[in-house]
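Aim 2, interim progress: modelling of the flavin-adenine dinucleotide-bound target.
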Amino acid sequence: MPANAIRFLRRGQIVEYGDVAPMRTVLDYLRLEEKSRGTKEGCNEGDCGACTVAIGSIRDGRLVYEPANACILLMGHLHGKELVTVDDLAHGGTLHPVQQAMVELHGSQCGFCTPGFVMSLFTLYHQGRKPSRAEINDHLAGNLCRCTGYRPIIDAAEKSCTGKPLDRWVLATSDTLEKLGRIAMGGDVFVGNSDGFIAVPRKPDTLARLADDHPDAVIVAGATDVGLWITKQMRDISKVIHVGSVTELHEISATPEGLSIGAAATYAEAEEALAAIDPDVGEVLRRIGSKQVRSSGTIGGNIANGSPIGDTPPVLIALGATITLRQRDDERVLPLEDFFIAYGKQDRLPGELVWRIDVPRLKGNEHFRAYKISKRFDQDISAVMGAFKFATDGRYVTEACIAFGGMAATPKCASHAEAAAMAIDLDRPESWSEAIAAIGQDFAPISDMRATASYRLDVAKALLRKALTEIAGTVRGETRVVGTRGKAA
Ligand SMILES: Cc1cc2nc3c(=O)[nH]c(=O)nc-3n(C[C@H](O)[C@H](O)[C@H](O)COP(=O)(O)OP(=O)(O)OC[C@H]3O[C@@H](n4cnc5c(N)ncnc54)[C@H](O)[C@@H]3O)c2cc1C
Ligand code: FES
Ligand code: FES
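Predicted structure of the complex, ligand included:
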């Protein structure tokens, strides 16, 4: 029998939460039910960070704390995790070190953003290493402040995040690990009945069976899309199946060909392994949303949502990735590009799950480049995303995979440009022109609030030229302002 309550750790106690509505967000739980109102509601769509909370979980046997946007996090996500909020930090009249530093360095004026910043700093404090200024900037990119300005907040991070955390959470680590482990032993969770429920299966077979039995249920991974269906589109969702408690779906393993990534692996979990394929893959991941988004959002969700502007699909398509889909006990594998059929239409049957993504590593004669073009550097969706893989024989291109996001109704390869690239001699830039011009045959992009059609086309052509320029190696160190290969700016 599955348990009929979500169980999570709160202030050292295991909370059993059985009276939970499928659409309940963690922010509403905190503010409306628990009445912990330190956590603020700003944008309610994952952008501003005012609602940031820390989520503690066990990873590779260690307790880690990651920031998350409570406004778009669903309660089912908390099962087997610890929830820490700004209301918990001060104790017996003493502020937490990150709060104390914010006070001493004047990191707060109106204070509306402050609880979110404090919680992001709390997770940085717990990383156990002294961050560089660039790492602090990266860590705080998902927290917006309208009046203090960022310098004093960054100073507070430098002062408090010393690499040697020692607070109540550190002292309670073994107790926390024991309690979270105990919850994990509890198995599958099913709250509700067949007309409306939250399911948090732990066993892969239970997940596959539930999804097949309830093809009308919403599959939820990190909810960085689904959360907005609730808070912005006001959709009514009565059945929710969470995939995040199935350990197998978080596994990232080396294969003879490259890397196999479980669909529920978060961006944060997958970042290091994917960056090892090529630094540009790591750089693309670093620029997805914010730390909060990357700690919840998953690679599988970024594919399953079928968005034409998702950042990982063009990268994975160019690398030659395949996707494994599972329905009950049956699995099928297809090239990732074939998964995307048309706008809003993917090759996925009702009740079928995205299960795994396999990414080949680069061969010795293969060169990869990827570039994200967006209006803002951080926390922005792509206008155009270009990913390129070229195989070379000496100075000649022998194979080309050129994939774009933001240029068509689906993430898609530029087949005309790929064919024309076969004539490329890296030492003769005039031989690149045919492939660059062919992009105009491959795409007829749309104009929208992110970019005009002509801008998109110009950018796509320029990105191909940039990739070839970098691979040819004739221009060194001058093609990028930030995100130089293998080194965060
Ligand atoms: C503030 C903010 C910034 C963002 N920035 C970026 C960005 O820079 N780049 C970018 O690409 N995206 C961005 N996104 C979008 C979002 O983070 C991604 O699309 C994310 O990968 C979705 O993953 P998820 O796990 O949160 O999916 P969810 O929201 O849980 O699910 C998304 C969709 O996939 C389905 N689904 C999820 N997992 C499975 C599965 N295993 N099998 C079948 N169906 C499944 C769900 O039913 C749903 O239809 C941003 C979102 C926010 C809120
Ligand atoms: S309220 Fe803005 S990110 Fe949650
Ligand atoms: S202190 Fe006012 S928004 Fe940051």
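The radius of gyration is 23 Å. The chain has a mean pLDDT of 95.
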